[in-house]
Specification:
Belongs to the RecN family. May be involved in recombinational repair of damaged DNA. The protein is an alpha/beta fold. 56% of the residues lie in helices and 19% in strands. It has 2 domains: 284 residues, Rossmann fold; 162 residues, no CATH class. Strands 2-1-4-5-6-7 form a 6-stranded antiparallel sheet, with helices on one face. The protein has a 6-stranded mixed sheet with strand order 8-12-13-3-14-15. A 3-stranded antiparallel sheet has the order 9-10-11. α5 packs antiparallel against α11. The longest helix has 67 residues. It is elongated, with a radius of gyration of 46 Å.
Length: 550
């Protein structure tokens, strides 16, 4: 419920702070006095968009702050999901800066407008004549029935099940599409895989083959140079090994004279050993080298196969070809596994459908039980509002498809008079009748669900006399379960309120300001008398006002 409202620098309001009770509050005032300004300010707190025209003083920021009691609304989950601090008394603040920028805060935490709008739905319902169009909305019609049917938990369970079902359907559709796609590629993928398998590829073999091909293609040149190495090293008179041996012997003879000569001898010994190893390996390699045309042809062919496959698959290495090979193998295995997966997923989906169907049936049965009770209660209130022969029917029809409402469709039917054909409410009800129907529905809903605070904005237009008194009584009865405001021009309704606030304008120098104040008992009598007889208040109007208040 709305505990208090503070407005600074908004439209005609310079500064306003007002507290509210949890009962039936009346707001009155002349046309243009500022009732729409009050609603506009509340609208900003609830997330409506703002612009610079809202600022009274364009050089100062506008600040609107509302304090709400949230104890009865179970909004802890909303605050948790939006990472906000939950307080039983929550402060919502909206600021409009001279630059035109707007800021919003919930308990001093910055929020965006969408979060404010989501929260606002739970806090205040501003109901004006044009909002009776809600009655034509299927969402709202189901909301009415489900409140009376106590379907909240069933609807929640159904929608969770529907979410799981839709996810399962998407997964099954994806599996079927994957199979169709793989089926089209199956033959070609199999051909590509066989081609790669036939090549018998191994990691690192391309470099080895290219090295071997280079050697096989240059056998004579390699052998010629190895033979020259062996010849130079082993030549009897001037061979490298003979020369090193002579150097080693000479250094050995003088090694005893100096550590330095000993080091020279050791180093030349190491060189001799290393050179001997190289000569031995060159000899071994020279022995192995043979001209092998068949091996050359094989290596050339294998490399050509690798190059062809690389070009075909747009890669540069055998390793990348092996990745493609594994991928193709995986696709072929995947195709074989898909049938089993599809069957399993279909069975899973059938089980989900059965469960969702069961919950949908419970929802439908509860609605069918609630509809006669709901219709009777609405018609009873309409009788009090001067529509003695009104008939209202919630026509529930089954559907095969799952919707967010279950497996039902709904049509709201209405007839105002005896002998009149019942038909769709949008065709059969006038504007005034729609207002009374909506009031009756809100009055019924107040007994079944925690409705937000409601503001009836001149819903009594076109009504007078005894019907106005009944309207006031109905709204007062609603206030036993919720906070109710009525903006009205009718004294009969104004007299029913527990509190009475007046909106008025006044001039200060060359400025016009708007104010809202809580009327005391004597002030309230004067206000209602003025509503009865105009500015020239008669004694009879005063007495009539007192009678209405009593």
């Amino acid at each position: 419920m709305l505990l208090s409202l503070s407005i600074k620098n908004y439209a005609l309001i310079e500064s306003l702070e007002i507290d509210f009770s949890n009962q039936f509050s009346i707001i009155t005032g002349e046309t243009g006095a500022g009732k729409s300004i009050l609603l506009g300010a509340l609208g900003l707190v609830l997330g409506n968009r703002a612009d610079l025209t809202a600022l009274k003083d364009k050089s100062q920021k506008c600040v609107i702050e509302a304090i709400f009691s949230l104890s009865n609304y179970n909004l802890e989950d909303f605050f948790s999901k939006n990472d906000l601090d939950y307080e039983k008394q929550t402060i919502i603040r909206r600021e409009i800066l001279p630059s035109g920028k707007s800021r919003a805060f919930i308990n001093d935490s910055p929020v965006n407008l969408s979060e404010l709008q989501q929260l606002g739905v739970f806090l205040i319902d501003i109901h004006s004549q044009h909002k009776t169009r809600e009655l034509l909305n299927e969402d709202y019609q189901f909301k009415i029935i489900d409140a009376v049917a106590k379907n909240e938990k069933r609807i929640s369970s159904y929608r969770k099940g529907l979410e799981v079902l839709n996810k399962s359907k998407k997964e099954l559709t994806k599996l079927i599409a994957e199979k169709e796609s793989l089926s089209k590629e199956q033959e070609y993928n199999n051909f590509l895989l066989e081609e790669l398998l036939a090549a018998k590829l191994k990691e690192g073999e391309q470099l080895e083959l290219e090295t071997e091909l280079d050697q096989l293609s240059n056998v004579e040149f390699i052998k010629e140079n190895l033979d020259k190495v062996l010849s130079v090293a082993n030549e009897e008179q001037l061979g490298t090994l003979i020369t090193l041996s002579e150097i080693k012997q000479s250094l050995q003879k003088i090694a005893g004279f100096s550590k330095e000569y000993t080091d020279f001898h050791d180093r030349i010994s190491s060189v001799t050993i290393e050179l001997q190893d190289i000569i031995n390996e060159c000899f071994s390699n020279a022995e192995k080298i043979i001209n092998d045309p068949e091996r050359l042809e094989y290596v050339s062919a294998k490399l050509q196969t690798i190059y062809t496959l690389q070009k075909k698959h747009h890669v540069n290495s055998v390793e990348e070809l092996l990745v493609i090979q594994n991928d193709l193998d995986g696709k072929l295995l995947r195709f074989d596994d898909l049938d089993a997966e599809i069957i399993k997923k279909q069975k899973e989906q059938d089980e989900i459908i059965e469960k969702v169907n069961q919950v949908a049936t419970l929802i439908t049965n509860a609605r069918l039980e609630a509809i006669p009770v709901l219709s009777k209660q609405i018609e009873s209130i309409l009788f009090q509002l001067g529509m003695a022969d009104a008939k209202i029917v919630f026509d529930l029809q089954p559907t095969e498809n799952f919707t967010k409402f279950g497996k039902d469709t709904i049509n709201l039917l209405f007839s105002a008079n005896k002998g009149m054909e019942i038909g769709a409410i949008k065709k059969m009800a006038s504007g005034g009748e729609m207002s009374r129907i909506m009031l009756a529905i809100k009055a019924v809903l107040a007994n079944y669900s925690k409705l937000p605070s409601i503001i009836f904005d001149e819903i009594d237009t076109g009504v007078s006399g005894e019907i106005a008194i009944k309207m006031g009584e109905i709204m007062k009865e609603m206030s036993k379960n919720m906070q109710v405001f009525a903006i009205t021009h009718l004294p009969q309704i104004a007299a029913k309120g527990n509190q009475h606030y007046k909106v008025f304008k006044y001039n200060v120098d060359n400025d016009t300001l708007s104010e809202l104040k809580l009327l005391k008992e004597e002030q309230r009598i004067i206000e209602i008398a003025e509503m009865l007889s105009g500015k020239n208040i008669s004694d009879s109007a005063i007495n009539h006002a007192k009678e209405l208040l009593n």
